[in-house]
Write a structure and sequence with these properties.
50% of the residues lie in helices and 14% in strands. The chain is an alpha+beta fold and 175 residues long.
Length: 175
């Protein structure tokens, strides 16, 4: 299997977006794009699918809501019922309006914390993980496109140079 890639370096995000459109128009596969800041519309230009992370956030919020109800029912009704301000302690439903802030807070707590964990796991960002950035310039002010070479190296290099790249390198990628 060929594991050669082209690293094309750009110094402007508008030139980068035009280059990506030109490269994708010629049916070449872009492996990755490295940018120093988020570029608006890059995901659509690359043809990436929308994320389903909002659905997981909703599910985590529902989990927090259910756990808050079960926790308050057990603590305040089953385990240690108390007469606080004359409220009856034999039914959760009668006390539920007093527990709304707790339900809200646990819903937000579960959604937020589990989303952070999900994001780090999905992004494969582990503690002490080494950076996978191919060029330190992309953390400052440059943009890099990584294009997979299939069998048309010279044609692809010529195409990339016409898109406004300031530097083009062929790299043997370790798989």
């Amino acid at each position: 299997m060929n594991n050669k890639v082209i690293h094309a370096l750009y110094d402007d995000d508008d030139v980068l977006m035009k280059a990506i459109k030109d490269i994708r128009e010629k049916k070449h596969h872009i492996e990755e794009v490295y940018t120093p800041f988020p570029v608006h519309g890059l995901d659509k230009t690359l043809g990436l699918e929308g994320t389903k992370i909002a659905i997981t956030s909703f599910m985590y919020g529902c989990l927090g809501f259910i756990i808050s109800i079960l926790m308050m029912d057990y603590i305040m009704i089953e385990d240690w019922p108390q007469n606080i301000g004359g409220k009856p302690s034999f039914s959760y439903i009668e006390n539920m309006p007093a527990f709304v802030p707790i339900m809200f807070e646990l819903t937000v707590y579960f959604a937020a914390h589990l989303m952070v964990i999900t994001f780090y796991m999905r992004s494969k960002l582990w503690p002490f993980k080494k950076a996978e950035n191919p060029s330190p310039l992309t953390t400052d002010d440059k943009f890099l496109i990584e294009i997979l070479i299939v069998n048309n190296e010279k044609e692809l290099i010529r195409l990339v140079k016409t898109t406004g790249a300031i530097e083009v390198k062929v790299i043997e990628k370790n798989v």
